[in-house]
Design goal:
Blueprint (H helix, E strand, L loop, with lengths): L1 H17 L39 E4 L2 E2 L10 H7 L4 E9 L2 E10 L3 E9 L2 E9 L1 E2 L10 H4 L6 E3 L8 E5 L2 E9 L11 H7 L1 E7 L31
């Protein structure tokens, strides 16, 4: 009896040790799974170079003044390339006890503007002569009635603009219109009758849009001091 049970016990032990049968291997001709190809993003196309201005109307938009934009480096050569027939002179603007670097651009009666670096990385462009025109046809020397501003969009000027009125349209805050009011010296907005009679656009001012990367010129290479002069040796006897 004991001998007849031995093979059966051995078979059960082998089944318990082996567990469930393993899954069959995949067929040899099954294609191997491959990772998806990497996603490549094409670089954005480079902006076309700005066309230089030589004469005629100078458009002032939220993006810049004619060919000038936030991408224009604050250096003479870059500005001269955009206004090749103008006199471009770097210098400084002084007002009271303050001084700002500026680049003046002049071309007779056809153009007069200054690029002023109000602080590192911040600048403004002031146009005071020529055929500068805003998005809605606002031109230099335009009268208050022709410019069609609401006094609610204006404020009394301060600093260099004391006695003037500074106006901005809600949809183009990058562009300011400086209205001169002859004879007005108070730090308030003149009455409507005075604006209608005397106010005119004296300057148009553009500032780069908020968050726009303003291009700075590369820093100048440090100047190495000359080597110390060697002490003169007494002549040998």
């Amino acid at each position: 009896m004991i001998r007849s049970l031995a093979p059966s016990v051995l078979a059960l032990a082998l089944l318990a040790a082996c567990g469930e049968p393993a899954a069959p291997p995949p067929p040899l001709d099954a294609p191997a799974e491959r990772p998806p190809p990497p996603v490549t993003v094409a670089p954005a196309p480079a902006a076309p170079p700005a066309e230089p201005w030589t004469s005629g109307e100078l458009k002032v938009t939220p993006g810049g003044v004619g060919p000038l934009s936030a991408a224009t480096p604050f250096e003479r050569e870059a500005v001269l390339a955009l206004f090749p027939e103008a006199r471009v002179e770097p210098g400084f603007l002084h007002f009271g006890d303050k001084t700002w670097p500026q680049i003046a651009v002049e071309q007779g009666d056809a153009l007069g503007l200054s690029i002023i670096e109000t602080s590192p990385g911040h600048r403004e462009v002031r146009i005071s002569a020529g055929q500068a025109v805003g998005p809605n046809g606002e031109a230099l020397m335009a009268r208050w009635a022709d410019a069609k501003f609401d006094p609610a969009d204006c404020e009394a000027g301060i600093g260099r603009d004391v006695g003037a009125i500074v106006c901005r349209r809600p949809d183009t805050p990058q562009i300011s219109y400086i209205f001169g009011v002859p004879g007005w010296t108070q730090s308030t907005i003149p009455p409507a009758a005075t604006l209608a009679e005397k106010a005119f656009i004296r300057e148009i001012v553009w500032t780069p849009p908020a968050g726009a990367p303003v291009v700075q010129p590369p820093p100048a290479a440090p100047v190495k001091p000359p080597p110390p002069a060697k002490a003169a040796q007494p002549p040998s006897a």
